[in-house]
Amino acid sequence: MSGLIDYWQRWRRSRSLALANPQFAYLWDAPPADEYISLDCEMSCLDPRQAEILSIAAIRMKGSRILLSEHLKLLVKPAGQIDPASIAVHGLRHQDVQEGMAIEDALAALLHFIGPRPLIGYYLEFDLAVLGRLLKPTLGVALPNARIEVSSLFYDHMVTAHRPDVDLSLSHILQTLNLPDLPRHDPLNDALLAAMVFLKLRG
User: Fold this and answer.
1) In which element (H, E) is residue 69 found?
2) In this structure, are residues 55 and 76 in contact, taking their beta carbons and an 8 Å threshold?
3) Model pTM?
């Protein structure tokens, strides 16, 4: 895993010169030793090219500890409508997010919270695709943080155990690793679950 972090650090340094807003230069600093951020977002639809963020949760991790008391949870007011198919997943309706933050303020708060730390998540690619699109006007480049996908870690774990026919659903991952489950599609719960999976697989 250290090789992955080293790669991202080299890539971050090469990209920092293209930063659109020097206010966020700290994202390219060396991350604090053995600290991570577990991240999850709920979206207005399932198309990363159009989705807006409705809620964000992030939890700081240090060593083998999940610092749940040091978490960020934000509600965001979208500019457009929420796809009914997404409402069926996360339960956030238009009226539920009317008191939410403006996306610009939410993104600034998120960047300040995560800093240069590596990001952990379950199917993190979708969240980062939306975040990257929304952050492009602010940063000018993609979010530089290293990212760790817990479903990939689980797959590697199962292959090492000679069980390559892997079910990557979160329910199966939690059951296999003897981890507790929590109500889903609450971003704080989902970030917490991803953090627990990471720590269990890291050993």
Assistant:
1) strand 65-75
2) yes
3) 0.87
